[in-house]
Design goal:
Elements (H helix, E strand, L loop, with lengths): L1 H19 L9 H22 L1 H28 L8 H25 L5
Length: 118
Amino acid sequence: MLSLNFLYAAALLSIGIAALNLGVPLQEAPLGYTGIFFGGAALICALFAIKNRRHGLMGAAFLSFLALLTAGSRFFSMIQARQFNFADPQTKLLCAFLAISALYLSATIIKWRNRPHP
């Protein structure tokens, strides 16, 4: 699970950097800073999980839940406003951000449910 946490952090950081490097103004690319923030925070949780595994992974799971809510609100507001255009690179990155956060949170929940209780 620790290696999955590092992969999650790297994926969010790469999405954030890609969103900033698309050449659009920063006001139109809010996903860049969001990806870097959540990716950096997940990386800090992964580094903390090396020493204290349970709390570090719980922190990363909570961050993935917040990332899912953040991306989900933008995603559903775009759909509700009928501005969803999958050809836009920012929308593709938003969908990737949403999917990666949902997959990581699902993997964490499945791992914790299958864990034997002390």
